[in-house]
Amino acid sequence: MMHLTSRNLQAINLFISSCSLVFLALGILVDDWVRLNIETGKNVKIHSPWKYSTIWPKGDMEVVRILLLVVLSLSYFYNCYLGMEYTYMFPQTACVIFTAAFLTCFTGILLISALILYHIRLRQGKSVYYLNYHLTWNISTAYISIFFHFASGFFSLLEYQRRATDSSLPSETETASQGSDFRMQSGSSIQVISLPETPPPPPSIVRVRSQESRNSDIPKPTQIQKRRVTWAL
């Protein structure tokens, strides 16, 4: 399994949030989300919730458009928020990470609510303002943006888990090093240290008298007698 650091998770999260913002902007540029059949099959009009339309009465689609504008603003703010976190302008704390996860999930929920309300308004207007409607593939850009929003929240939580794991590693390493030092100290206490052999003493200047010289210094009995006779004379 590939090991992803917290820095790599931040980069992936920033890329995903940028993709969600790009797909939202793409939905603004493409205005044919729905094709409406007004009277006959030949009279077809295109519609997008981002733009004002005179088909519905004033206020029916205004709520959807306001929700989409709020989603776009929050997505832009969230992307800037992650950029500041990536460049260390925000402290790398759990509060910052959970704020990012809550912000992107809340934006995704708002986008889901806007799309659900848009589908309700389309069904309510059927047979009243138009005969039928047909959804195009351009509306899928909003659903892809929803996916990226929730994926970004998942990576934010994964980043928090990675940071919690990395913060617990130094204490475990320190405990293991202390245990190894204790084992080394206990092992060294019972270790038998052999001393080096002492070198032979240098030859002494004072010569030890041999046994023969000692015996020669002891006077013999004949010598004693001669000394006595000589003294008597």
UniProtKB/TrEMBL annotation:
<feature type="transmembrane region" description="Helical">
    <location>
        <begin position="140"/>
        <end position="158"/>
    </location>
</feature>
<protein>
    <submittedName>
        <fullName>Transmembrane protein 225</fullName>
    </submittedName>
</protein>
<feature type="transmembrane region" description="Helical">
    <location>
        <begin position="94"/>
        <end position="120"/>
    </location>
</feature>
<dbReference type="InterPro" id="IPR057351">
    <property type="entry name" value="TM225_dom"/>
</dbReference>
<feature type="transmembrane region" description="Helical">
    <location>
        <begin position="63"/>
        <end position="82"/>
    </location>
</feature>
<feature type="domain" description="Transmembrane protein 225">
    <location>
        <begin position="1"/>
        <end position="162"/>
    </location>
</feature>
<keyword id="KW-0472">Membrane</keyword>
<dbReference type="InterPro" id="IPR033542">
    <property type="entry name" value="TM225"/>
</dbReference>
<dbReference type="Pfam" id="PF25452">
    <property type="entry name" value="TM225"/>
</dbReference>
<feature type="region of interest" description="Disordered">
    <location>
        <begin position="192"/>
        <end position="223"/>
    </location>
</feature>
<dbReference type="GO" id="GO:0016020">
    <property type="term" value="C:membrane"/>
</dbReference>
<keyword id="KW-0812">Transmembrane</keyword>
<keyword id="KW-1133">Transmembrane helix</keyword>
<feature type="transmembrane region" description="Helical">
    <location>
        <begin position="12"/>
        <end position="30"/>
    </location>
</feature>
